Amino acid sequence: MAPRCRGPLSPTGFPGVRFRPSGNFTTEIKATDRCHWLGTFDSKEEAARAYDVAAWQLGRPHSDKNFLDIESLVEAELVAPEPRLVSCEEKRRHQLAMERLAITEADECAMAQWRRDHPEDMLA
Question: pTM higher than 0.85, yes or no?
Fold first, then answer.
């Protein structure tokens, strides 16, 4: 029987792994109706190993994994960084909080500049 086609690979060569402009690699895995962000890693291999651990934990078939020479969850956990399962919703909430913080900081800078430029408007 011919080997099963895994579909198109990402540009990194590993399913679930993406290269970020910062030079790091991120990985996420989809499970039913949820997306789990696994973290940011220094190398694509580290990210792919974290993906494989999550795939083992979710009960994915062996052919869906990046490193087919790993035969068990225990073996995968020995060679991978600890995965951190975070939902995409939690990631969105964090991004929204960071955007709000940036707006607040910009407002504070603008108010400080106004106080310097218009001291007559300040109460004594």
Answer: no
